[in-house]
Amino acid sequence: MAEAEVTIHAEHMFYDRLGTHRGVELRFDAFAATADADQVITPEGLAGQRLLDLRGLDGGELKDAQGRPVVYEPGAYTVRTLQEFVTQSIVDQAHLNGGGVCTVAH
Length: 106
Known about the structure:
Elements: E1 6-8, H1 29-32, H2 43-47, H3 82-89, E2 94-96, E3 99-101
Antiparallel strand pairs: 1-2, 2-3
C-alpha cells in the first residue's frame, strides 16, 4: 500500500502548444467559436475547428488581441483538429506526487 497524490491540470487543454509547458499561452477563443446554438461546446464542434484554419466567433480567421493569426503548435504529434489537440493534451494533465507525468505500467 502506498499513499499518493494525483494532481489534474485541466488548464493544459487550453495550452496553445503540445509537449511543453514553456512559452505556452492559454487560449479559449477557438473553443468558444465552436459553441452550438445553446452555447454548448461539444467534441463534434471541436472536431470541426481545423488547426491550420482556425475560425473565430464571426466565422473569420481567428486572431489574437494584437491582430495576429492564432497558431496552435502540435509539437511532434499529428493532430489536425482542436478536438484531437485536446485529446492529446490529456496525456500531460496528470502529475503524481507533485511532479512528472503519470504513467501506467502493467
